[in-house]
Amino acid sequence: MGGMFGFLRSFGIEKLGKVGETITQKIVSWDPETASQAEIEEMIRELDKITTEAGKARATYDRERAEAEAAKRNYDKFLAAAELLNKRLEESQSAGDQAKSQELSNSLNKLLEDLEGMKPEVEREVQEADEANAYYEELKELAEVTADKVKKAKDMLEKGRRDMQRAELERQRALARADKAQKVAGLKSETSSLGVALAAMNRQAEVAKAAAAGSDMKAQLLTTERKGQDDNIKAALAEVAGEPETETLSLSDRLASLKKK
Predict the structure, then answer these.
(1) pLDDT per residue over 84-138, tens digit each?
(2) How many Cβ atoms are within 10 Å of 169's Cβ, its own excluded?
(3) 4-157 CATH
(4) How far is CA 194 from CA 201, 216, 246, in A?
(5) Nearest CA to 122 among 48, 170, 64?
(6) 25 touches 58 (CB < 8 A)
(7) What is the CB-side half-sphere exposure of residue 131 using CA atoms within 13 A?
(8) Does residue 41 carry a pLDDT above 80?
(9) Which spans in 35-97 are helix H?
(10) Does residue 14 register a pLDDT over 60?
């Protein structure tokens, strides 16, 4: 791109106007990897200017090329005619026809003068076509470089946005994980507290059971009453204890007992 404006100076025209060199300098110095959205939009506007001018340059080149080709074809026709006249002049001279030779000589001389006048014009048309094509090609190259940078900048910006989105998503996930961990820790703490309470209650229940068992044992030690005792066992226990059986007392014995003072 450094040769672009050197060419334009030799061409004698700044097709992009006063801002042409500024646009190129912007494009050369612009770093798409650090571009912001605003910079991308500005570069797209510059690209629009370049592509618009490139379209005009292509139309100019097509016209200049058509004119150069037409001028060249016309020049070639005159050149072919001059060669034909020269051949006929040589034939007439060989035949010794002086009058014909003079006539052909005059015609060839005039045609050669026309060709000599046409040649620089044809060369100018060809040069203008070449210059128009060179200008178009440089604008096209500039547009391609700009478009490539814009595309790269868009990709980098989109990648940055995706990275930010992923980072935000990961942050939210980390917060969610931390929240879950906190809840689990709370539940574990509650479960642990509940376990302590249940353990205390179980210990109290064991103490109560032990006390009850002790009371039962003591009661059993202090009484002759036992579960499952039949009447024979009860009577034997009463007899060894010197306790009379109430069932064996007669009515008279019972009345006599009541009369005792």
Answers:
(1) 999 999 999 999 899 989 999 999 999 999 999 999 999 999 999 999 999 899 8
(2) 10
(3) 1.10.287
(4) 10, 32, 59
(5) 64
(6) no
(7) 17
(8) yes
(9) 37-95
(10) no
Angle at 203 between CA 200 and CA 206, to 5 degrees: 155
- Model confidence over 239-258: pLDDT tens digits? 666 655 555 566 666 667 66
Q: Which residues contact 68 (CB under 8 A, 6 or more apart)?
A: 122, 125, 126, 128, 129
> Looking at residue 6, what is its pLDDT?
43
d(CA 42, CA 49): 11
* CA dist list (Å): 172 to 159, 162, 183: 20, 15, 16
Q: CA–CA separation, 20 vs 28, rounded Å?
A: 13
Question: Which DSSP letter does residue 33 get?
Answer: G
Token pair 């040069």 is found at 127
Rounded Cα–Cα distance for residues 39 and 31 (Å):
10
CA distances for 212 relative to 190, 205, 217, angstroms: 32, 10, 9
Domain coordinates in residue numbering, the chain: 4-157, 177-246
Q: What is the reported pTM? A: 0.53
DSSP tag of 224 = S
User: Which of 143, 125, 132, 148 is CA-nearest to residue 68?
Assistant: 125
The percent of residues in the chain predicted with pLDDT above 90, rounded, is 26
Alpha carbons 142 and 15: distance in angstroms, whole number: 13
d(CA 128, CA 60): 10
| Residue 71 to residue 123: CA distance in whole angstroms | 9
pLDDT tens-digit series, residues 15-31:
454 445 566 666 766 77
- Phi, psi for residue 194 in degrees, rounded to 5: -60, -40
Q: What is the mean pLDDT of residues 186-214?
A: 70
Q: Is the pLDDT of residue 2 over 60?
A: no
